[in-house]
Design a protein that fits this description.
Elements: E1 3-5, H1 15-19, E2 20-24, E3 34-35, E4 50-57, E5 67-79, E6 84-92, E7 102-112, E8 120-130, E9 135-142, E10 153-157, E11 167-170, E12 175-179, H2 181-185, E13 193-199, E14 213-215, E15 222-226, E16 233-240, E17 250-251, E18 254-256, E19 263-271, E20 274-282
Parallel strand pairs: 1-7
Antiparallel strand pairs: 2-13, 3-10, 4-9, 4-11, 5-8, 5-10, 5-13, 6-7, 6-9, 11-12, 14-15, 15-18, 16-19, 17-18, 19-20
């Protein structure tokens, strides 16, 4: 039975973008040219519950540490405006989802489909930390519409190919476990489904300055503090050279220093990984 348990004078601004990793099994992860199959009645137009799946072994992508997910993406073939998808991230015990028996739900969110996104890749924010060495399963679930005929969703794919199979599951059509579209009925579907995030270093230790970017310095009006998603900021203070707290406020990654006098200041950034102390200059 399937078991589901819920369970600086610093680095450049481009650091976060450079560290971003896309987990994908698609040869072409950016384009959608076709709409895939789903369980529905093409006479009554009633749509049944469907799940579209992909899996990703972190080791296959060279990820040895924890993986911090920030976004998920999926191809939309066609969708009705009343369709609401549930996006689920699991840790599983097998990359072959037909054989997997343990699904640990790590994170979930919903998305309201928009027909304007037909034949395109859709992106939704989703935050989750995946333990090192894990196999991830990404599920796009489209619910049973009952008697309604305007809640449909069909996955998007392209014909460029894939590195590992995708899966369809729909008990109403007798597909009780994730099964490849080819095994369902010889369908060519190879869903575009991507996971975007960053690898969490195995040890940050005393190297915090390598992960936090403070810029510009000298600063004129705004001092930016760029922190990767796997580091949580718990406090930021800025003192003058006499040790007086300037009282400036850190918000959304920046500090307003426009009202400070010219000179040298001491910035302290407290995080869950330690404390960074750095001199900064106000123009």
């Amino acid at each position: 039975m399937k078991k589901i348990t819920l369970f600086l004078v610093a680095v450049l601004f481009s650091f976060a973008a450079d560290a971003q990793i896309t987990l994908t099994q698609s040869i072409d992860p950016e384009n959608v040219t076709d709409g895939g199959v789903a369980c529905w009645d093409n006479v009554s137009f009633e749509y049944r519950n469907n799940s579209f799946w992909r899996s990703y072994d972190l080791a296959d992508f060279g990820v040895s540490g924890d993986f911090e997910i920030s976004e998920v993406q999926w191809g939309q073939g066609t969708a009705d405006a009343n369709n609401v998808l549930t996006l689920n991230i699991y840790v599983v015990d097998s990359e072959d989802l037909f054989l997997a028996t343990e699904y640990e739900l790590i994170a979930s969110t919903t998305h309201n489909s928009d027909p304007a996104n037909d034949l395109s890749v859709v992106t939704e924010s989703l935050s989750a930390t995946i333990p090192a060495g894990s196999i991830i399963a990404f599920e796009v679930n489209s619910p049973d519409g009952g008697a309604a005929t305007d809640v449909r969703f069909f996955p998007g794919y392209n014909t460029a190919g894939e590195n590992a199979p995708c899966y369809l599951q729909s008990a109403d059509c007798g597909i009780n476990f994730p099964t490849t579209p080819a095994d369902v009925g010889g369908f060519p579907d190879s869903y575009v489904m991507n996971i975007i995030g960053e690898e969490v270093p195995l040890s940050i230790g005393d190297n915090l300055s390598e992960y936090i970017a403070v810029y510009p310095t000298p600063a004129d009006d705004v001092l930016n503090v760029k922190v990767p998603s796997y580091i949580q900021v718990t406090g930021v203070t800025l003192h003058d050279i006499l040790g007086k707290n300037t009282g400036v406020t850190y918000s959304n990654g920046s500090i307003d220093v426009s009202n400070l006098s010219r000179g040298v200041y001491l910035l302290t950034v407290e995080t869950n990984e330690g404390t960074l102390t750095q001199k900064v200059v106000k123009k």
